[in-house]
Design a protein that fits this description.
GO terms for molecular function: ATP binding; ubiquitin conjugating enzyme activity. The chain is built from eleven helices and four strands. It is an alpha+beta fold and 312 residues long. It has a four-stranded antiparallel beta sheet with strand order 1-2-3-4. The longest helix has 34 residues.
């Protein structure tokens, strides 16, 4: 049956993509004489009675592909509920659930999943479906026997020597190497960070805003030690000796005698520096006080004489 060039190009593109990036456990066995006469190889999944076997799947395309699914069948004998006596496959992906976006790789992945999860409700092999429901041990032993006889080669197929998704493997290898490099780099970066923080950062923190440091400083200033107190006292004494204040003299009392007010020996009266209001007029107030005291003493002497005369 002839196929349109568009279908052929689509099939060739999918086969080329699968050869570059094959799915896990799935390969393509091509024919150099006829590119459309290829076979899909499905490796039996581990943990199933099909483990260790390699099953061939044949494809038959028509002009309706990819709008319609191709016909697929097992070329390798297998004991499975959803595989008929001639190898036809009963799965919804190849019937009502088909989409034009699906392709060869999707069909082979679906077949591999069917080996893991068989569906006895839509069984093409009634015996296999009955054993699966009633006696799973007998089903497994029968499937293993047929797999070892018809699907297990002496040598692993050459197509599986190529690793799955080599580009992904390379990317994972590069990621692992980069992770190793990054895991070794943080040690150096952390050491740098610690040195920088120990040199510059703490000084800034203590000088700008650090509640702990400020509290300690305030405590020290509030309650200095004995040595600091002695130093402060000595510094105060030194300050007094260096900048001595002038002696303060008591201001003359207006009620005292003239001799008491003039007890300074004719020297001018010195007003303390702290009394700024009287410093400017110290001399004037001093003389007034002396005159007032002299007049008071003269009047008091005259009164005493008058009293003495009256007594006589």
């Amino acid at each position: 049956m002839s196929i349109s060039p568009a279908v052929v190009r689509r099939i060739m593109r999918e086969l080329s993509e699968m050869e570059k990036n094959p799915p896990e456990g799935i390969r393509i066995q091509s024919n150099d004489e006829d590119m459309l006469d290829f076979v899909g190889l499905v490796e039996g999944p581990e943990g199933t009675p099909y483990a260790g076997g390699y099953f061939k799947v044949k494809f038959t395309f028509n002009d309706e592909f990819p709008a319609a699914p191709p016909k697929c069948r097992f070329a390798t004998k297998i004991f499975h509920p959803n595989v008929g006596p001639t190898g036809e496959i009963c799965v919804n992906t190849l019937k009502k659930d088909w989409k034009s976006t699906y392709g060869i790789a999707h069909i082979l992945v679906t077949v591999k999943c069917l080996l893991i999860y068989p569906n006895p409700e839509s069984a093409l092999d009634e015996e296999a479906g009955k054993l699966l429901l009633e006696d799973y041990a007998s089903y497994c032993s029968r499937a293993k026997l047929i797999t070892s006889v018809h699907a297990t080669p002496r040598v692993k197929p050459v197509e599986f020597n190529t690793p799955s998704n080599p580009q992904d493997d390379k990317e994972s290898a590069t990621k692992s190497t980069s992770n190793e490099a990054s895991s070794s780099q943080p040690t150096a970066s952390t050491s740098k960070a610690t040195t920088s923080s120990s040199t510059s950062t703490p000084s800034i923190a203590t000088s700008v805003s650090s509640p702990k440091v400020s509290s300690t400083i305030s405590r020290k200033s509030a309650s200095p030690g004995p040595q600091n107190a002695l130093k402060s006292l000595s510094s105060d004494k030194e300050g007094l000796s260096v900048n001595p204040q002038k002696e303060r003299h008591p201001s003359p009392s207006p009620l005292s005698t003239a001799d008491a007010n003039v007890g300074t020996g004719g020297k001018p009266i010195v007003v303390g520096l702290g009394m700024a209001s009287t410093a400017g007029v110290g001399g004037v107030t001093g003389t007034k006080a002396v005159k007032r005291a002299a007049t008071n003493s003269a009047t008091s002497g005259a009164e005493k004489r008058k009293k003495a005369l009256k007594r006589l």
